[in-house]
Amino acid sequence: SQERHLSVFIHDNTEYATNFTYLEHIQAAYMNLEYTTFMEDMVFSGGVRVEEAKAEGIADLDSVLFNLTDFPSASIADRTNYLTRYMKWYPSFLVRYKPNLFTTVQTGYSARVNRPTADFVDPFPRNLFEPSIIRTGNSNLEPEFIHAFELKLSQIKPAWNWEAALFGQQIENVVREDEDMLTDTTSVITWKNVGMGTNVGMEGRVKFNLFPFWDITLTGLYFRTETDHTEEDDLTGTLSGFQGRLSQVFTFSGGGKLELDSRFYSPEQIPTGTVYPNGLANLNVTYRRSLWDDRLELSLKLLDAFNNEERKSKTSEMEWSGGVVRNLVAYTKPDGRTLFLNIRYKFGSEGKDKKARERLDTGKYRY
């Protein structure tokens, strides 16, 4: 795969460009075996994936560009090459047991890799016109290698269904975002490999019909991540928090559906402070309507209905050089309230064929 980032800056009618290319070459082989008992109530499966991977990033950065905008030229190289190569094997196994038709218990283990994307390693600063805070990628970033365990229980009932899971992960080369001072007036925010980490938590989902026209789905996730053996003290510690979601779908007898998607974030503890110190709740609203035998579909979506989606953090960080302690309050707001209108039309007989199949399946087909 290949990703390419090209940025152009014009100053005094002169064009300056930065060019970053990220290449991934991955060769992999798979093998999987599965065994089902005679009563078909238990399944054993196991497999392995072997891969040889090579990732290469080539950055051609015009240093004149940074001098024009007051960036410290000594802190950013004119040309940076990123290269990592490894060969790994990732085993996995799963045991699934069904004591009855509606209940499932399963447990499993898998090894996996989380490779950084181009945004994580691109050394070109994101915010060119704010030279006091440089947000950039890390050209020396390595992949995360993960050993994951899971235990899950699920049930299907006539009017509702649910599932709950416990999970644990051991992570090598944990990736964290961090900020350091370059000078008295300039800091850089980038991604770092901070050492070994463990991640444990639980998640659950419940889906039910409060009324025939009202479907509700509740999901929740609690996590706790700890890192140690890091080179910087402010990267050693615990991340923990809770995230919840409430999805409601109203189906109207005259046609159309209204979807309300609510998300909740508790204050999340990080090694240097708190993210969402007051918590956060936001809402997305969608209305869908199909016309002309499902040939035409109209949807109207409102994102961030409360216009409050932002990532706020309060941190107290000690720099590894100089022992300077800084108290920071940061806000990141990706977008404001946004309205989307989507119109989709199906050509051919797909819409009519779908209606005919639905009538046949429900026993309401008329000869």
TrEMBL record:
Protein name as it appears in the record: Outer membrane protein beta-barrel domain-containing protein
Keywords: Cell outer membrane, Membrane, Signal, Transmembrane, Transport
InterPro entries referenced in this protein's UniProt entry, alphabetically: Beta-barrel_TonB_sf (IPR036942), OMP_b-brl_3 (IPR041700), TonB-dep_rcpt-like (IPR039426)
UniProt GO MF annotations: siderophore uptake transmembrane transporter activity
Compartments reported by the entry: Cell outer membrane
Primary location recorded for the protein, binned into one broad class: membrane
GO cellular component: cell outer membrane
Biological process annotations from GO: siderophore transmembrane transport
Membrane topology: Multi-pass membrane protein
Keyword Transmembrane: yes
Domain Outer membrane protein beta-barrel: 13-316
Organism for this UniProt entry: marine metagenome
SUPFAM superfamilies from the UniProt entry: Porins
